[in-house]
Design goal:
Layout: H1 11-14, E1 31-35, E2 38-41, E3 46-49, H2 52-55, H3 64-76, H4 87-99, E4 106-110, H5 113-128, E5 132-136, H6 147-150, H7 154-163, E6 169-172, H8 185-203, E7 208-213, H9 229-239, E8 243-247, E9 271-274, E10 286-290, H10 292-301, H11 313-351, E11 355-361, E12 364-369, H12 391-401, E13 404-405, E14 414-417, H13 425-429
This protein binds pyridoxal-5'-phosphate.
Pyridoxal-5'-phosphate binds at residues 112-114, 117, 140-142, 214, 218-219, 247, 249-250, 275.
Length: 430
């Protein structure tokens, strides 16, 4: 193996005056305030936050109901150990179990999306007494030692190979047109499912505990599956006795127009992992919704995966208030305005040769670029990542100069739009 590259990977490491590190693609905005879909910076600029920070501030910034719930919890008790009961925690678990499309659901709390995915995989491997997990290429499941190994994103693969646990994960191709030779969505669904079955049979069904997938691609491309695909995935999991786990860290809590993205596919997984939108990112909180058989197994076996801050009462109080907000109009707002967002994006596709495709669901969309001269991506997405000189990054920078923030999913070929669920028609038009 070659020696690691020693060049600095973080803008933070170049600026020693800022005493913390952040990720290589971090922006340099100094954000101090927020209100609804807008944020303000220290130098008085205002931005329309069309990426909800990291696809997570679903209820918008400065939501008074969530703030009040956190303050109220703080006045009563800030922290209760995860081995004890707490009213906010039990209430939130009940609310989550009621809306999640999982049979006989109950909840195991965690702190971050990465840790929720790790807990789900620990539970799956213990329950199934099998070591492997299947994940898709072009997925993102987290950055911790285990979760990074579940991630199948070419832009982080080099990092994963150097730093993360890499055993136990096998990958399959997502139902993307570029992976198959299909002339219609139905054919794409069939080919992608046939390929998955081929992978399962070659890996050995008995060795596979779970299949973990985002229902609609997240940071590595906001791509929904073709109709019928997830029904075939569910059938294959049933046939080969593999647990189906939906990673809803981005797609949950109204983002795709339903409580959970997998709900828009009409499929019931065995587990759902969640984070981000559960509290609208006001307090870190995450977890796993598991079916009855899995939670019984957990209770009987006592798997030692607890965390000090799991199910933190402040997060649970925030989560209850955020769920009230989603229920009282925000999910309806997504359903109502998603067609307008899609129409405006399709106009871009029709008007600009460089916009090759737009895809997504609800309030989670990717705008994909190609070089009009060649029909190919401007840079090779398997190699490059986040090059500031490429035209895709330049459109993000242009938008930012004009007061709108987008995200860079697969950063060299796509911009991601994932606004707070409270945006209105004028925000979308802008
Ligand atoms: N899963 C998905 C689909 C994600 O998008 C993310 C983060 O963006 C994670 C898991 C990891 O969550 P966290 O960053 O809270 O650890």
């Amino acid at each position: 193996m070659s020696r690691p590259n020693r060049t600095p990977v973080s803008p933070g490491s170049e600026d020693r005056a800022i005493p913390h590190w952040h990720s290589p693609d971090a922006e340099t905005l100094d954000v101090t305030d927020g209100d609804g879909a807008y944020i303000q910076t220290a130098d008085g600029e205002e931005y329309l936050d069309f990426i909800a920070q990291l696809y997570c501030v679903n209820a918008g910034h400065g939501n008074e109901r969530i703030n009040a719930a956190i303050r109220d919890q703080l006045d009563r008790i800030a922290y209760v150990s995860s081995s004890k009961h707490n009213d906010a925690r039990s209430a939130l678990a009940g609310r989550l179990a009621a809306v999640a499309p999982v049979d006989d659901a109950s909840v195991f709390f965690s702190v971050s999306g990465s840790e929720a995915n790790e807990a789900a995989m620990q539970l799956a491997r213990s329950y199934q007494d099998a070591p492997k997990v299947l994940t898709r290429w072009r997925s993102y499941h987290g950055g911790t030692y285990g979760a990074a190994s579940l991630t199948g994103d070419p832009s982080t693969r080099a990092t994963v190979e150097r730093y993360a646990a890499t055993s136990g994960t096998a990958r399959f191709m997502p139902p993307l047109p570029e992976c198959f030779d299909a002339d219609a969505p139905e054919a794409l669904a069939d080919q992608a499912a046939d390929h998955l079955e081929w992978v399962i049979r070659n890996e050995g069904p008995d060795s596979i505990a779970a299949l973990l997938t985002e229902p609609i691609g997240g940071t590595s491309g906001a791509y929904p599956a073709p109709p019928g695909y997830f029904e075939r995935v569910r059938e294959l999991c049933d046939e080969y006795d593999i647990l189906l786990v939906a990673d809803e860290v981005i797609t949950g809590f109204g983002r795709c127009g339903d409580w959970f993205g997998i709900g828009t596919e009409g499929v019931r997984p065995d587990m759902i992992t969640f984070a981000k939108g559960v509290t609208s990112a006001y307090v870190p909180l995450a977890g796993v919704v598991a079916n009855g058989a899995l939670s019984d197994h957990f209770r009987e076996e006592g798997i030692a995966v607890g965390q000090t801050f799991a199910g933190h009462p402040l997060g649970c109080a925030a989560g209850l208030a955020a769920m009230d907000e989603y229920e009282d109009g925000l999910i309806d707002n997504v359903r109502e305005l998603a067609p307008l967002l899609e129409d405006r994006l399709r106009e871009l596709e029709a008007e600009h040769d460089a916009v090759a495709d737009v895809h997504g669901r609800g309030f989670h969309w990717g705008v994909e670029f190609r070089d009009p001269a060649t029909g190919e991506p401007f840079v090779d997405p398997m190699v490059e990542n986040g090059d500031e000189d490429n035209p895709v990054a330049e459109t993000r920078e242009y938008a930012r100069e004009h007061g709108v923030l987008f995200g860079g999913g697969r950063p060299d070929i796509q911009n991601i739009i994932s606004p707070p669920l409270c945006v209105d028609e004028s925000d979308i038009d802008r």
